[in-house]
Design goal:
- The protein has helices spanning about 5-20, 35-40, 60-65, 70-75, 80-95, 145-165, and strands at about 25-30, 50-55, 100-105, 120-130, 135-140.
- The protein is of the alpha/beta class.
- Strand 4 (about 120-130) and strand 5 (about 135-140) form a beta hairpin.
- The protein has a five-stranded mixed β-sheet, with helices on both faces.
- The protein has six helices and five strands, in the order αβαβαααβββα.
- It has a single domain (about 5-165), classed as CinA-like (Maf protein), CATH 3.90.950.
Length: about 170
């Protein structure tokens, strides 16, 4: 279970590791509403490693800002592997960062379906490799209320960034 102190420590580790590697991160967030970016920018010195944050809560924002294709949204839905992959690549392209993380999920308490119940969150991390963005996607199913689902999402996203800093 995540908590605010644990998130602060995790964000501090992300900032320290990015700084040591001379790299920058960007975020593309839906269900977390900017909480990943906030966690990073709460840390002193983050301005050197945080490039860009986009809160793309609506499908329209995902399309117009991040370049998520309408066909992808229609075929797979906003909470899907393909959408977060396009979100991560989009924010990486916009920002020029080295690493990007994207999240989209069903935080609840409503909005879940049998296929995508409350607590379903898709993650994508994109890492610039010189010519393309290599992406890694992952789905989690978190239990808890809206606040806890969002907090656990932030922690998982930050941990994923930390693991991808080379």
């Amino acid at each position: 279970m995540a908590d605010h102190e644990a998130l602060q420590k995790l964000a501090a580790a992300v900032v320290a590791e990015l700084s040591a590697a001379s790299k920058a991160v960007s975020t593309a967030e839906s269900c977390t509403g900017g909480w990943i970016a906030k966690s990073i920018t709460d840390i002193a010195g983050s301005s050197a490693v945080f490039a860009y944050g986009v809160v793309s809560y609506s499908n329209g924002a995902k399309e117009s800002i991040l370049g998520v294709r309408q066909a992808t949204l229609e075929k797979h839905g906003a909470v899907s592997e393909r959408v977060v992959e396009e979100m991560a690549k989009g924010v990486l392209r916009l920002s020029g960062a080295d690493i990007a993380v994207a999240v989209s999920g069903v935080a609840g308490p409503s909005g879940g379906t049998a296929e995508k119940p409350v607590g379903t969150v898709w993650f994508a991390w994109a890492v610039r490799d010189g010519t393309n963005a290599l992406t890694d996607t992952h789905c989690e199913h978190f239990a808890g209320d809206r606040e806890l689902v969002r907090e656990l999402t932030v922690a998982h996203a930050l941990q994923g960034v930390l693991e991808r800093i080379a």
